[in-house]
Design brief:
Helix content is 37%, strand content 16%. It is an alpha/beta fold. It has two domains: 187 residues, D-Maltodextrin-Binding Protein, domain 2 (3-Layer(aba) Sandwich); 111 residues, D-Maltodextrin-Binding Protein, domain 2 (3-Layer(aba) Sandwich). Helix 1 crosses helix 8, helix 6 crosses helix 10 and helix 9 runs antiparallel to helix 10.
């Protein structure tokens, strides 16, 4: 039995991996696989040999594998940075206005979302102290699987924040409740120039998979590609998966989010994506020196991205 970890179970950008498991595409490839839920220790579990795959940020593994040594990126789950900012719906601000962020309290979960927010703010020329921007922690996750999508909305309801940062499901819940509105969508060009290349969602595998179990590595990529094609062809199929895994309000929203993001479901890992990732990882001290594309990406399997 193989194990896969998804840091945000209800992220539309990671959902491809969830669908690949839940719709049986891994099993079709002869891979028995199960999720590891409600933990933020995925990279550490992989280092300990208790985890085989991570479906999450392309930089995730660096926390336990310096400079990605010992792991490989198999394929992209989706293209471009998938981080969003929503603001209180009553704020009179124009979408995409970076200056409007000044003076706000912004909820962001440590460590990865908060790290990306700090990077984006610095890249936009916003100084936290000078511009009176406060980054505040969200309420704790809820449910047995550690859901976090309501945390942004709850931060506004509890008046601990004026805005929140996270994945698309968080924004969708805020919009549906009329509590928040979209302010920044990095994937679609909001934020500082080049922000869409900060990060991307990837399937990371332990190197023992790519070296000793090559058929499993290949099967995992094929499973992801099948899920991407299936979700593109019929986003509504995501509802049945959501109903099995998500709180009811999130299950109702997932198909719309998948339909919106389907054009970004592409398994290819481009050189531009890796270059942007290296800039982000170096700036935040995740790595000292840029890692060559061929050392990061499992290139012997790249032909499978377009099958």
């Amino acid at each position: 039995m193989y194990r896969i970890w998804v840091p945000d179970l209800d992220s539309p950008s990671y959902f491809v991996a969830i669908a690949a498991v839940e719709l049986g595409f891994f099993k079709q490839e002869g891979i028995d696989i199960e999720f590891i839920h409600n933990t933020n220790k995925g990279p550490e579990l992989m280092r300990e040999g208790k985890l085989d795959f991570i479906a999450g940020p392309a930089f995730a593994g660096t926390r336990a594998f310096p400079s990605w040594k010992g792991i490989k990126l198999l394929c992209a789950l989706s293209q471009y940075s998938y981080w969003f900012m929503a603001v209180r719906s009553t704020l009179d601000v124009k979408r995409g206005d970076l200056q409007a962020i000044k003076g706000l309290r912004i909820s962001a979960a440590p460590a990865w979302p908060e790290m990306s927010l700090r990077y984006m703010l610095a890249d936009a020329g916003i100084d936290l102290e000078r511009d009176n921007v406060r980054i505040v922690p969200p309420p704790p996750p809820y449910g047995d699987k550690g859901f976090m999508a309501r945390n942004g909305v709850d931060s506004i309801i509890q008046n601990t924040a004026d805005a929140y940062w996270g994945n698309g499901m968080r924004v969708a819940i805020g919009e549906r409740l009329g509590i928040a509105k979209l302010h920044l969508d990095l994937r679609r060009g909001d934020g500082p120039p080049g922000a869409r290349h900060y990060n991307f969602a990837a399937l990371t595998a332990h190197e023992r998979i790519t070296s000793e179990h090559r058929e499993v590595a290949a099967g995992a990529i094929r499973a992801i590609v099948k899920a991407q094609k299936t979700l593109k062809a019929d986003p509504s199929i995501s509802t049945e998966v959501g109903q099995r895994l998500f709180p009811a309000d999130e299950a109702e929203l997932i198909a719309g989010l998948i339909e919106r993001d389907a054009r970004f479901y592409d398994a290819e890992i481009t050189h531009d994506a890796v270059n942007g990732l290296m800039n982000f990882a170096r700036a935040y001290g995740l790595i000292k020196d840029a890692v060559p594309y061929e050392d990061l990406v499992a290139t012997p399997f790249s032909h499978l991205w377009k099958e």
